[in-house]
Amino acid sequence: MAKRVWLSTTAWRTASASCLLNLFSYTGAATMACSSAGADVVQVDASKGMTEWAKENMKLCGLENNYIRFIVDDCLKFVEREYRRGNKYDAIVMDPPSYGRGPNKEVWKFEDNIYDLVELCTNKYIIFNNLFCINCVEDIMAVKTSNAYGNIT
User: Contact 46/73 with Cβ under 8 angstroms?
Assistant: First the structure.
């Protein structure tokens, strides 16, 4: 609950963003919080079931008239395509799992994939403005402890 309040108030208003990309969006809590604060949101999750649940949550929150685009896709592949298309976002929120599978059985392992995803989203390609939020502190600490990526802070 505290994270959704932070997203819909402090973080969102500070970012002055108009278009947010929510990766690994699950049931859409961050999507709904940011949409209710006025953001246009592109929500990506590999699970069709979670995406359907997020659509239900949009209805329950009364946000059917807000711009929310729901995409079922592998998040890393989606970000790579957005880069090739030249699409940019004002803000990115992500909550990657430790392990998961994409819609076409792509394997996501946090320690193997997070660095490339963060690289794509920040200093190289698709983030346009100034908010980048990862909701997986425990996983980052585990990766740092294993010394897989010493430069993730």
Answer: yes
